[in-house]
Amino acid sequence: MAEKKGAPKSGGKNITVPSTAALRQQAVRGQAGGARPAGQQQAKQAAPAGKQGKIEIMASRQFTNWLADQNASLAFTTYQVGKVFLLGLREDRKISLYERTFNRCMGLYADKDSMYLSSLYQLWQFHNVLAPGQKRDGFDRLYVPQVSYITGDIDIHDIAIDKHGRIIFVNTLFCCLSTVSHTHSFAPVWEPKHISKLAAEDRCHLNGMAMENGSPKYVTSIGLSDAADGWREHRQDGGVIIDVESSEVVLSGLSMPHSPRMYRGKLYVLNSGTGYFGTVDVKSGKFEPIAFCPGYMRGLAFINDFAVIGMSKCRENRTFSGLDLDDNLTKRNVEPRCGVFVVDLNTGDLVQWVRLEGAVWEMYDVSVIPGVVRPMALGLRQEAIRRTISIGDPVKI
């Protein structure tokens, strides 16, 4: 396919992209309107209906202004319907929501140049193919899947890139941290000392990973069980945070903890079974709540003075039922919500939100992409994946 005339070139990269019609996605966009009462949604629009049904998005009235002020965009996953969403802003500051389908996508890592995504039995590596300053139909990033590692169905949760550029992920089925392999499903990196052997048994439901200085620092686990599926007996208060270097438990008594993160020298965690987001005093072994969030929390990212948290509705199944979260929601006379919520770290207030309704009620991971205003990505189901071709720098033989 011939290169489009006038396409920017940078660093020897020539970008060939499909026509506007081939690339255009039916994005969900906020609608301009007059003054509304504080807290009323800015937009309620339907995303294209698939086999799972219609998906609707609503946003708080000042969400688009907040996102513009941060000069960032968001990415989040829902394994329930197998979608990764890229949420940004159009030039008129209306919401742009771009979604791609990957079966049971969960773990997510995204930055301005790349994106990593786990799916049912693969770990995908995407790269942006637009040159600096180049846009396509108003999008300033085009993430294209370039590499897929076949891992098998090992229930990958959190994903990160270490200081050596290696992909590190939480291998929940085998209760260990792993990296990818060119010859095997995975290569173990670390396992908690209470696990007696690597077995495909999801013994403790290791799920979250916090990085510090480019290395795994802390992990979360639902319990310290060493038997197949044993973590389910410890959902109420058996959750722990483990120091990777020492393999010692630094905090116990949590309920379904997820998404530990280091930010500005502090350890944050989602105490998902209670609905509280907070910090961890590692020295005293105490959890210090910052905010109550009305939903089952998974996925945590930060930008400036804000935390961005993914939330799911509580469904009647044995994983979510019978937790303190149910009572805490009842006390506040509120129903659980699904979406992305923004917490002010200085006040603990939930200041902005994006809610998903309809076919989506569960989310897993969230990423903030600083410096990217309106991202898009290619999937595997559209013609665009055949016609989007990028040329790298010449290589000497």
Topology (elements, then pairings):
Elements: E1 9-10, E2 13-16, H1 20-23, E3 44-50, E4 53-59, H2 63-70, E5 72-78, E6 83-89, E7 95-101, E8 108-110, E9 114-118, E10 122-128, E11 141-150, E12 156-161, E13 167-171, E14 176-179, E15 187-190, E16 206-212, E17 215-221, E18 239-243, E19 249-254, E20 257-263, E21 266-271, E22 276-281, E23 286-292, E24 296-303, E25 306-312, H3 324-331, E26 339-344, E27 350-358, E28 366-370, E29 375-377, H4 384-387, E30 389-391
Parallel strand pairs: 11-29
Antiparallel strand pairs: 1-2, 2-30, 3-4, 4-27, 5-6, 5-28, 6-7, 8-9, 9-10, 10-11, 12-13, 13-14, 14-15, 16-17, 17-18, 18-19, 20-21, 21-22, 22-23, 24-25, 25-26, 26-27
Describe this structure in words.
- It is a single chain.
- The protein has 397 residues and is mainly β.
- It has a single domain (47-385), classed as Neuraminidase (6 Propeller).
- 6% of the residues lie in helices and 45% in strands.
- The chain has 4 helices and 30 strands.
- The chain has helices spanning 20-23, 63-70, 324-331, 384-387, and strands at 9-10, 13-16, 44-50, 53-59, 72-78, 83-89, 95-101, 108-110, 114-118, 122-128, 141-150, 156-161, 167-171, 176-179, 187-190, 206-212, 215-221, 239-243, 249-254, 257-263, 266-271, 276-281, 286-292, 296-303, 306-312, 339-344, 350-358, 366-370, 375-377, 389-391.
- The chain has a 6-stranded antiparallel beta sheet, with helices on one face. It has a 5-stranded mixed beta sheet with strand order 8-9-10-11-29, with no helix packed on it.
- The chain is globular.
